[in-house]
Amino acid sequence: MYSILLSLYHKEREEYLAACLDSLIVQTCPVSEVIIVFDGAIKKSLEEIVVQYQAYLPIKIIRLKYNLGLGKALNEGLKYCSYEWIFRMDTDDVCLPDRFKKQLEYINSHPNIALLGTQVAEFDETMKSIIGVKQVPISKLEIEKFALKRNPFNHMTVAYRKSIIEKVGGYQHHLYMEDYNLWLRIIAKGYEVANLPEILVNVRSGIQMYTRRKGLSYIKSEYTLAKLKTDLKLQPVGMAYAYFFIRTLPRLLPSSLLGRLYHSLRQKQ
């Protein structure tokens, strides 16, 4: 038995949400519980879709009076998850039919695992044109090394233990990086982590999602990330801030150039 946790925002498109929920219906491992957090006021058309799918999926709706942002919305949703194992996805993602089956098989055969992700295929908004594959490392050792430079998990693919997320303090506000922040705190505690080598989630990405992640607010977020690595004693101060500058430089590029750079990197993967 497991929970699936999603946060729904009023700007989501109806057809994306429907495709997301359709992918849960066809899972080879029956879905136990779906927690959907309405992060603030939701369009009537979106709510109608969720209500319609309650006939096919065990969906619980959690309503937030105001838009709190992803991290706080997920923290609220965590309170309502009935099971120890919680799977994440976003409301515009599409899970492959055996996603939960394969992750649960790994979980059942690795009783000490705390956090498990997978690879993703990134598509344009239509889900017709693939941009590339976002690859993340597989083993705990590889993940620990990779985490010092880049986010070692695809957030929309992870499964984690509710009790451990609560122990490390849950999601914390960190612009664009709530998930990365959480993974670092889990890694710092020495918990077992892994990624499966298979692609089990298709995501709508698009270059525009990355080109908007620039400017002063993003640079401040990168600084917070560097400080977190040193506070957790994961990385020496000098190295942490060296990576801060390396990660920040692309954010100073014009949007068009940043988009082309991102697209080129994904094609190589």
From TrEMBL:
SUPFAM superfamilies: Nucleotide-diphospho-sugar transferases. It comes from the Bacteria. Keywords: Glycosyltransferase, Transferase. Gene3D superfamilies: Spore Coat Polysaccharide Biosynthesis Protein SpsA, Chain A (3.90.550.10). One of its GO terms (molecular function) is glycosyltransferase activity. PANTHER family: GLYCOSYLTRANSFERASE (PTHR43685), GLYCOSYLTRANSFERASE EPSE-RELATED (PTHR43685:SF5). Belongs to the glycosyltransferase 2 family. This is Glycosyltransferase. It comes from Rodentibacter pneumotropicus.
